[in-house]
Amino acid sequence: MRIRTLLLAAGLVGAGGLACLGPYQIIGQALDTTISLGDQPTWIQTTPEKTTLIVFAAADGGFTAPFTLTTVARDQSSMILTGTYFFNGNEVTLTANQKYVWQQQYSLPVTQRTGTQRFDIDAGATYGYVRDGGVLTLTGDPPLGSFAYFPEALAGLKATTEPEAECVLRVFQLSVISSETRILGFNGPAIIQYTTPATFNGTLSGTLNIGVDSLLSPNVTITYQNFADFSGFVLNGTQYTPTNLNGDGATIRAVDFRMTAAAADGGAPVTIISGQVGYDLVLSSGTPSGGTYNLSTDGGPTFPLSYQVATVMDVTPCVPTPR
Amino acid sequence: MAAAPARGEAQHTLGPSYQVMIIDTKQGNTSTLQGPALSYVATLGGVWGFQGTFTAYFPVTAYQNGTHLTVGDFYTSAWGIDAVFAASRRVCFPPALQLDLGFGPHLDGVAMKGKRIGNNNGYADFNSFTMGLGVSAVLRWRVGSGPVSLGAFSTGAVDFLDLLHGGDLSVGYAVSVGALVGVDLQ
Q: Does residue B105 come out as left (phi exceeding 0), alpha (psi in the -120 to 50 range) or beta?
């Protein structure tokens, strides 16, 4: 599981002297460059090795429109590309101008971790674009493959058994990981900059606020308010991670989730699944090392799921997509 | 030009200065900070001695990969310290000029706290704590028979280590120049 909690400062001042704060920051670097797009079509592709999600925003009358491409690897490492796209016949050209990277570095002491980074880039690629009902296929060299429409791919999501609950937790984690991947310095020592709290926009809607109590009390609070990075999947709640300077501590409190899809008759959105993930995790050196996620669905049972469930980000059992 | 006995066992001078700090990172970024400063220079000993140059500076302008930025637009506070701890050699130019040249360890630290603007608009902090080797040169002119002196100084340094971002520093450069006024203590 990932709760890449933060950490910290782990010994900003310690026996060995000053701690490392990871790579240099960029002078004048904005913490958040995201402008929420509103509810926009999201597509998902799942394999046991990684999950890829694409948001293609509506062109809104212009020639180009924003997109995000999020990849979450099996080991939780994640990358987000953002930029613009445009159609030319049956082709779509993606031009990425920012890249967010979070590397899972749980094997390293917190003070040696890189934390989330954002890079300005200028990269583009053109793909053949075929949309056939609920399947989007992007061909090219290399091909991106086929994607399922997100609400349809998640339509069968349920948590009536423990294996189902485990997969729902991983789906929930897709949004959590995506949100954390945009918090500069997250899971690295540079997290200490949030002793002055900061707010980040969701790709589609809502906000995430992060705050650290103090340098010597590096307790991290993350609060989601109607936060959505992917169409219909909304988070609300608080994750609180009290730790000492070595990153030893816990993650507690709870975050609600709700997955909705447009109604077939055009009426109010229909809830596919909703519930809550309660945190009861133990952290050692900023890494989950014990405890449980307590996942419950509205009207359903509560499943205490081992912290290890989220360490393997494979959602194929409950989110099959075309190959 | 001739070496001469020290005019004072300890010379303490203080004055306004200007500081420039350049940081090249292994990720390919170049950050340049500059701004006004206040420097204190202490020279101890005789022909050979110790010279410490301590500068507190306040970055007001910056260049990030060549792009100019006004520090106050992005940071709520910005300050730095710079110090050269040098073994020094004194040279006197009678009747009233004295030049002290030093070489030794250099330290520089910068802390800039990013602004938070509105609900979701803010900037990342910037900081560094570099170490390397520096040189210092202090030219003093004794007013009358002393003990007051006027002067000018300059330091330059190349840094190889950063205690905060150890793996990412390629090389750092620090330059200070300033004017001084001080006293000689016997």
A: beta
Q: Are A198 and B116 a contacting pair at CB < 8 A?
A: yes
Most B-contacting residue of A8, A18, A24 (CB-CB within 10 A), to test interface: A24
* Residue-range domains of chain B with CATH: 10-185 (2.40.160.20)
Checking if the pLDDT of B8 tops 70, the result is no
CA A80 to chain centre: 9
Placement of tokens 């967010």 in the chain: A100
Q: Provide residues of B within 8 Å CB-CB of chain A.
A: 23, 25, 27, 29, 31, 33, 62, 64, 67, 69, 73-74, 112-114, 116, 119-129, 163-169
Cβ contacts of A197 on chain B, cutoff 8 Å: 116
Cα dihedral B131, B132, B133, B138 in deg (nearest 10): -40
With a cut of 0.90, is the ipTM above it?
Answer: no
Residues in chain B: 186
Write the residue in B67, B120, B129 that is nearest to A32 by C-beta: B120
Residue A11 has a pLDDT of: 32
Place of tokens 């073994």: B87
Residues ≥6 apart with Cβ < 8 Å to B51: B41, B42, B43, B44, B84, B86, B87, B88, B100, B102, B136, B138
Q: Say if residue B112's pLDDT is above 90.
A: yes
Distance CA A145, CA A319 (A): 16
Q: pTM here?
A: 0.88
Taking an 8 Å cut-off on Cβ atoms, the answer to whether A26 and B120 are in contact is no
**Residue A211 and residue A196: Cα distance in Å, rounded?**
6
Instruction: Check residue A6 and give its pLDDT.
Output: 34
Nearest to B13 by CA among B155, B154, B146, B152: B152
Residues A220, A242: Cα–Cα separation, whole Å: 6
Shortest CA gap B121–chain A (Å): 7
State residue B119's pLDDT score. 67
Say if residue A258's pLDDT is above 50. yes
